[in-house]
Amino acid sequence: MGKPVIEMDRQTAPIDFDDFLLLIGKLNYTWTNTESLLIHLIAGLSGMDKDIATVVFLTLNTSRARIDMVERLSKLDRVAAAERDRTLALTKRIQNQSALRNRYNHCIYAFDSEGGNPRSILMRIADRKDKLMMGQINDLDAEAADNIKAAITELGAINRDIWQAVSDFGYPQ
Known about the structure:
The protein is 60% helix and 10% strand. It has six helices and five strands.
């Protein structure tokens, strides 16, 4: 008889940190590429040309501000309900991906001296009613890598859907 096979829990299986960093880089690239498409939504919803919309986009220095701009423009009375609903659905999908992206862009990494998986430590203060919370820790494991891969896939789908909306509504390309 052979030795019994011990299955390692996928979530705690060792990861290659360099591969994980490449995933984070791909997440950032995909996020930035998708976020830049907000320029076309700003242009179309506001009636600006793409150059002016680019200046507005670059002047707004956070993703949240850029998404807010698109959402507010879509809520103007002159925007048709179908156009507004579709735009808000797109911005909601983008916003749904922001927590994961922010987790890996606003953290430091801690390494286990005994060879276990590294961890991310969020560099953000959560101000609650009666206490502060700091340093949320997340393991960098197979599940974390799968979550990043899923976010990259969803951002790619959002990207395609924004381009389709830009085409359907005749926004500047």
